[in-house]
Specification:
Length: 645
């Protein structure tokens, strides 16, 4: 996000608006503005003029649950503004609502001509990314129809249909063509002396495949009221630490963001669910790994997200082998997309299974859910899905044939299929990328934990002692192999990965902290790793870097090769506490909380890796998601790891 854009998020819908509340629809650069629902842009222009001129921002858009700004006509000191415009905007489920109040500053009656230019290009989000790819859309047609109270924009391509309806109270005096496909809604408003006139503008998006009966909220205030109620419900009963107000504020901010980041999903029997999205703006959808980790972080305080996530992922679990190389029976989905390009197979992410670690994390969450809640019914219901997930790990995943979970670069999809999924993120200390199939260290920790937790379910819930013993043996063998093959005696640290020939990929990376969280390392190795992660080349002062500084591969502004990720650090803090390294866990927690305090108590997706000793404030990563579910939940994981210390 740029400083000129503001983000509104609610229930799978988001809007980015400029400092005056406008949407220009400009493509390229960072984040394109617009109203987005189910991966499609349903408003690409929303531009206000008054008396033919663009007003200037007296107070630019400020974001809370709604976006507010104050506008005036351009002028000078000797020409006070004739009127003031107060603009407030919000998004609801598949909708956008704005109240616009025009207040006269004159002692006599006056009139003002207000015009709003609106358009919907229905661009797929993948068209708007920085890689500037283009996609053929044969037979695509757009149409515009003037309505009694506004205008409707529609789009069709074969069987694909979507539309956007714009209405206003009072109705516009006219709807004009612009020559560009956009339409201009025009009002002539009569203003009494020092009086006001208010317009309410409503936008309803009807994306393809969404059959929910929705209504546009009556006002931004109504959206704010509903969202505040959901935030209060999510936070109710959570014991925030009274002795550490900064952590308490970060937890409260995180829960508020999680309330807005819930997106619709369906369970195995079609039941309606709400699950944590990946993040906004680019990942406001179900991402398997992200939803699982978010749910694990909040599980000690709220079990609802975990139950919903498990059911949604069970419903999308692969049941057969796909035409691609990554869809295999029992595998848990990595990403679900609803857009036009996914629908027509022009991007592979409609249901994309390119993740080596979502499947074991599904089992980890199921086991943790039963442990925390005592709800064995869900474990019984999901027993076939859990067994299928174990089957994938043992067979297609590589545990039986290779001894480890293994992935290969997916042509057309992701090069890396662990949490560090950017190209080049898995590398040696000198930056060399491994050849052949990759065995990522962190995923082996998840697999170990998954086998142990599922063995416990088999023994205590499913009454299958033989299966439990099989899984316990597999877990023990994995632990022995890992410490033999991954440990680098010269560094007293595990390798980041093994390459296709079984050679160690020797970068010193934060993934080692995930092994502490999973309990894969024995106590001696775990303590060595935990203390090493707090040395200066790893710990920036704000958190543990993804790659230790000083290695040729390190870059403080790389996505996964030197940056600081809050959720990564939350896992590390939990792992440090697990191994009894409580001082180190508190150090990580204090760094993250102080970073959050410097940014309004909200942790972004990722921070730059610059050290606190060289810059006294956290440096933002330029392309980070502003709101991300794992980062929003990270303060709760810190609370679990260190309490209110």
């Amino acid at each position: 996000m740029t400083d000129r854009h503001r983000l509104l998020v609610y229930g799978g819908t988001f809007a980015t608006v400029g400092e005056r509340g406008d949407i220009s629809g400009v493509r390229g650069g960072g984040v394109p503005d617009g109203l987005f629902v189910r991966d499609a842009r349903h408003l690409s222009r929303w531009q206000l003029t008054v008396d033919g001129a663009v007003p200037e921002a007296l107070t630019p858009v400020a974001i809370g649950d709604t976006a507010r700004c104050v506008l005036v006509p351009r002028g000078g000191r000797d020409e006070p503004p004739a009127y003031t415009l107060f603009r407030e905007q919000a998004v609801g489920y598949g909708s956008f609502v704005e109240t616009l109040r025009v207040t006269s500053n004159r002692p006599a009656p006056s009139s003002v001509r207000l015009a709003l230019t609106a358009d919907a290009d229905f661009a797929d989000q993948f068209e708007l990314r920085a890689d500037h790819r283009t996609y053929a859309k044969p037979g695509a047609q757009r149409s515009r129809e003037v309505l009694g109270h506004g205008v409707e924009f529609a789009y069709r391509r074969g069987t694909w249909r979507s539309c956007t309806t714009v209405t206003a109270e009072p109705a516009p005096d006219a709807v004009e063509e612009t020559g560009t496909g956009a339409r201009r809604l025009v009002w002539t408003l009569e203003l009494p002396p020092h009086g006001s006139v208010e317009l309410v503008l409503r936008v309803m998006a009807r994306p393809h495949g969404d059959r929910r009966a929705l209504r546009v909220p009556r006002s931004p205030a109504a959206v704010s009221e509903r969202l505040l109620a959901e935030e209060d419900a999510l936070a109710a009963g959570v014991a925030f630490p009274t002795g550490w107000p900064e952590l308490a504020a970060a937890c409260a901010r995180g829960l508020a963001d999680l309330a807005a980041l819930q997106v619709p999903a369906a369970g195995p029997e079609g039941e309606e669910l709400r699950v944590p999205a990946g993040g906004a703006p680019w990942f406001l959808t179900l991402l398997g790994r992200d939803a699982l980790l978010t749910s694990l972080f909040v599980l000690p305080y709220r079990s609802g997200p975990a139950a919903a996530t498990l059911l949604a992922l069970a419903a999308t679990q692969a049941t057969d082998t796909g035409a691609d190389a990554v869809t295999q029976p029992g595998k848990i989905v990595h990403e679900v997309r609803h857009g036009e390009l996914a629908h027509f197979g022009q991007v592979p992410y409609g249901r994309y299974y390119g993740s080596v670690d979502a499947t074991p994390l599904f089992l980890v969450l199921l086991g943790a859910y039963v442990e925390h809640t005592g709800d064995t019914e869900l474990a019984r219901r999901l027993q076939p899905h859990a067994r299928a997930a174990v089957g994938w790990m043992l067979d297609h995943g590589g545990l039986t044939s290779r001894g480890y979970l293994v992935y290969r670069a997916d042509r057309g999809g992701l090069a890396n299929q662990n949490w560090k999924d950017s190209p080049g993120s898995i590398c040696s200390a000198d930056g060399t990328r491994p050849s052949g199939p990759v065995v990522a260290a962190g995923a082996q920790g998840y697999a170990y934990d998954a086998l142990r937790r599922t063995a416990h379910l088999a023994r205590t819930v499913w009454a299958d002692r033989v299966y439990a013993e099989l899984l316990e043996q597999a877990a023990g063998d994995l632990r022995d192999r890992f410490q033999r093959d991954f440990w680098m005696p010269r560094h007293s640290f595990p390798a980041l990965a093994l390459d296709g020939e079984g050679r160690q990929v020797d970068a010193l990376a934060s993934d080692a902290g995930h092994l502490l969280w999973s309990g894969l390392l024995d106590k001696e190795y775990g303590e060595l790793v935990g203390r090493r992660l707090l040395e200066r080349d790893f710990f920036s002062g704000w958190g543990v870097r993804t790659l230790a500084a000083g290695q040729p591969a390190y870059h403080p502004l790389s996505y996964h090769r030197g940056s600081v990720w809050p959720h990564d650090n939350a896992l590390i803090a939990l792992g440090l506490a697990r191994y009894g390294l409580h001082d180190e866990a508190r150090t990580v927690a204090h760094g993250l909380v102080e970073a959050a305090t410097a940014t309004g108590h909200r942790l972004p997706e990722v921070l730059a890796g610059y050290g606190r000793d060289s810059h006294p404030e956290p440096v933002p990563y330029p392309h980070a998601c502003v709101r991300e579910s794992r980062s929003a939940a990270a303060p709760l994981a810190l609370l679990t790891a260190v309490g209110g210390a």
